[in-house]
Amino acid sequence: MKVLVATQKPFAAVAVEGIKKILVEAGHEVVLLEKYAEQADLVAAAADAEAMIIRSDKVTAEVIAAAPKLKIVVRAGAGYDNVDLAAATEHGVVVMNTPGQNSNAVAELAIAMMIFMARTQFTPATGSEVQGKRLGIQAFGNVGRLVGAKAKALGMEVLALDPFLTDEQIIAGGASPVHSVEELYASSDYVSVHIPALPATLKSIGYDLITKMPKGAVLVNTARKEVIDEDGLLQALEDRPDLKYVTDVMPDNYALLQEKFGLRVFATPKKMGAQTSEANINAGLAAARQIADFFATGSTRFQVNK
Predict the structure, then answer these.
(1) E strands within the chain?
(2) Which of 2, 117, 216, 303 has its CA 20 to 30 A from that of 66?
(3) What pLDDT is stored for residue 192 in this prediction?
(4) Which regions of the chain carry the CATH code 3.40.50.720?
(5) What percent of the chain is helix, strand and coil (3-state, nearest 5)?
(6) Is residue 31 scored above 90 in pLDDT?
(7) Domain 2-101+275-297, what fold?
(8) Which residues contact 129 (CB under 8 A, 6 or more apart)?
(9) Which pLDDT band holds residue 258 (cuts at 50, 70, 90)?
(10) In contact, 79 and 257? CB cutoff 8 Å
(11) pTM of the entire structure?
(12) Is the pLDDT assigned to residue 251 strictly greater than 90?
């Protein structure tokens, strides 16, 4: 089978070699498309691919329609909103992610961002400590649990909200459960966002929620920018000069936020959550193994389109 590894942001060289080794030993051909300039390059390269490994690359309906042999797409990472799941399902293409492979990298970044903002972006101004503060975690999956464990090690009190988990499961994960998003925001000095970008969550975090946060609170977003109502965020920061926002997904209105609020806001230049050598390698190798297993045994363990 021909496996296309399509990455505008390439894997580390050691990850690429590992991916090739896994797939070639399983009897597959590996073709690389790295640092491509246009979406049309991906469309063209997918024409005879039977499997694809991607990172943040956009597998649109156009890409899927142009790839009649395509049977599986694996997103090396947890999020998969860059794949048109409906189009994939319509064409009989299995879509998988690699949950857990990037989790520690994202969790470490979330904690680093909290400290960065607590210390006023490492400027000479007097900052504060995270010890003794309350951290609310919105979605208590792989990343959320790791954030919670690291926060507890720093002496923070951890609250969590996850509608897919029972109170007992949240407690077993080391957090105190809360039962509404309003309660989570109102109770937390820091809120760390880990929800996916789905129709129900788009722009779900806006003025009303943000302004429920206590005085001096910080909103931390290492999830997706689409879950934030950016107009509501701007108004909340305008009306509440004590609040701060830090994100790994640059808002569309970031220049305006910086101009108006200075050190109260910060966004990484590019999404950095999974940008560690360890996560890079882990996710790439996991994707390769999942493709090899799919063709060898039919395994669809991490399928996200049903």
Answers:
(1) 2-7, 29-34, 51-54, 72-75, 94-97, 134-138, 157-161, 176-177, 190-193, 218-221, 244-247, 265-267
(2) 303
(3) 98
(4) 2-101+275-297, 103-267
(5) 40, 20, 40
(6) yes
(7) Rossmann fold (3.40.50)
(8) 118
(9) very high
(10) no
(11) 0.83
(12) yes
